[in-house]
Amino acid sequence: MLSCIKEILSIGIVLNTAFNVNGYTMIRTKNHAIEIFNSTELKYLGLGNSLI
Predict the structure, then answer these.
(1) Which residue ranges make up each domain of the chain?
(2) Does residue 51 sit in helix, strand or coil?
(3) 3-state DSSP helix/strand/coil % of the chain, to nearest 5
(4) What is the pLDDT of residues 17-33, one digit of tens each?
C-alpha cells in the first residue's frame, strides 16, 4: 500500500488520523481532534502547522 501511495503522491508516508482511544473512531474535523485530545492524557497534538 505504501509503495502505491508513494508512486501516486511522491510521498512515502501514511498518517493515522485516529487517536486509538477506546470508543472513538476517525477524527474528521479540527474541532473534533481538539475535543478528543483534551479528553486524553496525550501531551502533544500536531494540527496542520501547529503543535498544541
Answers:
(1) 16-51
(2) strand
(3) 35, 10, 60
(4) 677 787 777 788 889 88
- pTM of the entire predicted model: 0.59
Neighbours of 31 (CB within 10 A): 9
Alpha-carbon gap, residue 32 to 36, rounded angstroms: 6
Cα(40)–Cα(32) distance, integer angstroms: 13
What is the C-alpha separation between 19 and 16, in angstroms, rounded?
Answer: 8
Of 27, 17, 21, nearest in space to 40 by CA: 21
Which cell numbers hold the place of 44?
Answer: 502533544
Q: CA-based diameter of the chain, in Å?
A: 37
d(CA 32, CA 11): 26
